[in-house]
Specification:
The complex is a heterotrimer of chains A (217), B (354) and C (146).
Chain A: H1 3-8, H2 10-32, H3 47-57, H4 63-89, H5 91-101, H6 110-133, H7 135-140, H8 143-163, H9 170-187, H10 195-212
Helix pairs in contact in A: 2-9, 3-10, 4-6, 6-8, 8-9
Chain B: H1 7-13, H2 18-31, H3 39-48, E1 53-58, H4 64-70, H5 77-84, E2 86-90, H6 98-111, E3 116-121, E4 124-125, E5 134-135, E6 138-139, H7 140-149, E7 151-157, H8 158-163, E8 176-177, E9 188-191, H9 198-211, H10 224-227, H11 231-234, H12 238-242, H13 253-256, H14 321-353
Chain C: H1 23-40, E1 44-47, H2 55-65, E2 71-75, E3 79-84, E4 90-96, E5 102-109, H3 122-139
Classes of the chains: A mainly alpha (217), B alpha/beta (354), C alpha+beta (146).
Amino acid sequence: MTLLDFARGPALEWSLMIMVAGSLWRLVGAFMVRRTADLSEPRSHSTVAGGLRTVFTRMWPRKEFRSETLFGVVAGYAMHIGLAIVVFLFTPHILFIDSLLGVSWPGVSNDFVMFAGAITVAAMVALLIRRLTTPLLKAISGADDYISWAVTMLPVLTGMMAYAHIGGPYQTVLAVHILTVELMFIWFPFGKLFHAVLWIPSRAQLGAAMQRRGVKA
Amino acid sequence: MTDDKTLGERLRERGVSRRGFMKFCAATASMMALPTSMIPRVAAALEQARRPSVIWLSFQECTGCTESLTRSHAPTIEGLIFDHISLDYHHTLQAASGDAAEHAREAAMKQNHGEYLLVVDGSIPLKDDGIYSTIAGITNLAMLKDVAAGAAAIISVGTCAAYGGLPKANPNPTGAASVSEIIDDKPIVNVPGCPPIPTVITGVLAHFLTFGRLPELDALNRPKVFFGQTIHDRCYRRPFYERGKFAETFDDKGAREGWCLFKLGCKGPTTYNACATAKWNEGTSFPIEAGHGCIGCSEPGFWDKGGFYEALSKGTYGSAEGIALAAGAGVAIGAAAAMGSRARQAQADRKEEK
Amino acid sequence: MNRLDAIPIQVEDVGLPHRTENLQPLMQQVEQALHELVEHGAETVIDLSSMPFSEQDEKDLRARLGAGEVNASVMAFGPTLVQESAFPGVWLVEHQNAEQRRLTLQLVVARVPEILMTPPDDLPDSLAALRRANAESFDTPGKDVR
């Protein structure tokens, strides 16, 4: 079995199983855990609407914090949008998702995807440098942050290398790309990378609780 | 048997003039992807080329490789080169049969010991001492080892001889193996393909006749000059791939307009061969140009790489059951963990109340 | 009765010409080769079969080169078509096999492509053959020697 066969076969099967098992474990566990009861009088009952609003209000920093956080927010958006374009609008990726979930949609031209990929890599490098050189950020950063950064960076980098045919024979670089994606799948449910799923319920929970107390968050 | 005429002399005997010979050399140099400045050198070498003794052993194969080489009506480059080599044994093509044929082979081996070229097509079954393919009562395995011992070099023609091919496909009932898996003490050139492009087979022979040695090989022992690039890298439909224009089915608008066949399972990106440049039937066309994706026939194990119509970006594992099981396990563990947490908290509450 | 020609075939002309973008660099190469011929008498042969070069590129090339004064065909091992372009010294040589299938297409920059010149080794044989033919025709006057 070649490395590519392994990456497309057993490695894919096992990494997906681990990702699904871990994600459901974490989600079900988090939702079923007992929450401290809010014993105050509810000032509003539209907690669902409140929760939903908070999901959106947090998408842009409040005026007071903007100057401090703007770089991180802009670079962060550049990275996330670029990554979304690369992952969800590159035709071979769409075909992969189709083979797993049975849904597909039109893609964009390969040149545009490569451009988005380059933006993603640049933004991620900029954000890492910021994390390492800002004393406060460096002090609070741990293994989880760096691992999550690495398992996201490696697929984008190796994917672009495979596409450009650099770094070795195409089959090998392609196999390495697929294996780094599988590494990300395995890490996904267990570290900060899971924010990809948790950001919505997390913001909504805060919003709902605040709404109940009559605070627009 | 071998005689001492050179290739140049044999061509003139067949009525090929010196101009015709120059044309032949220009076409041969082009086929070997040599620069035009080398044409005089090719001409000089081929003019003087003696007939190498060649023993062609056909093992567990469909004969497609031999057919690929010999199906031509008019004199072609391939035909002339093929005619020039002294084909001392080829059990499909030769006139002799039975004992006479085997004696001819043994005599050629003895007379040219250490100098003959061994060409193999077909895989070699290993299971049950190799009884699943025999010639004149001799197993392929035994014959290969016997003939390889006195060969100068071995050319494995076709994916079966080079990598095991179709007989080796899952579950490989005969224990089919490639030549390289059995012989490890002779130079081996793999010329894979199912079948290989005829010009590629004769290009290797022409290279041998011109330079007296085998061409430069890649990591899978394939001549780099023919197998150095993927189909995808030289495909004329590449601009469509780049622009994201893919045919979705075999008769839709995209297919009719010649768009990229990636979604229909084309294995071009991971297949190394000369189909996109040399093409087939003397440059007529190749599978993608005819509207069907590349099946990767020059790569090892191409029968077992997922379906021919499944895109390369799809996984090859089997079951959705595994994922469903994992999902169930995840829910169960999460629920159990949460229940455990709730139970502990309830217990702590009861303790506090006391 | 089932016959292959009873299957309706519709050829769709998409009208999308496929170009490899190799024509411009090729023309630069020809210009350089012609310069070499003028300055140093050096001949150049460019093998168009060994580079990415589409049918449309070939059409464009022939349009650019135009036709000159010389149009020749050589019958040796199949036909070879030789055409001088509108630029003297720049020739298109198409080698075909006996079934008129193309073997190679070459751009030759020279005073004359080599295939048109008589191979020097043929000359002594030619002289011997002509001597024989003349001798025979003198021996039998009036006999139709063809």
